[in-house]
What does this fold into?
Amino acid sequence: MYYQLILQNHVDDLEKSSWTLIPPGVVGRDSNCQVCIEHPSISRQHCQFSLNGEGTLVVKDLESMNGIYVDDKRVKHAPLMPGQVLQIGSLRLHVEFSTGGDAMPKAISKPKGDVIATQPMKAVHLEPKPQVPLEKPWWRRLFE
It folds into this structure.
């Protein structure tokens, strides 16, 4: 499943009016974000989209300067339902849900990293230290 973030208002200096998102993903001005929106009202890492345990899309503010709003109410995190309007900075976005049955866009950006390529950590077995007879402290040797 993927999501389309579609711009609802006119914003100067934006080349695109929609972005494709596959959760989990971060939206921001930083080029390392899954969805990069270069606009001064957007923080470098503005918000994060993820799916909760029930499969609902959830948006979380990443302590951005201008915050996030869902249906004109400022929130730190909130589930998104079809038809709701999300505001990130000065951009008002409509989030459209698309199932895997729909044709995925060709220019879709995939999440960074590859889970398959991760390696399990190696277990380190520590050998117990051999018991060494304790030497008398220096001050006991003085009195003997």
In short: The chain has a mean pLDDT of 78. The first strand starts at residue 2 and ends at 7. The radius of gyration is 26 Å.
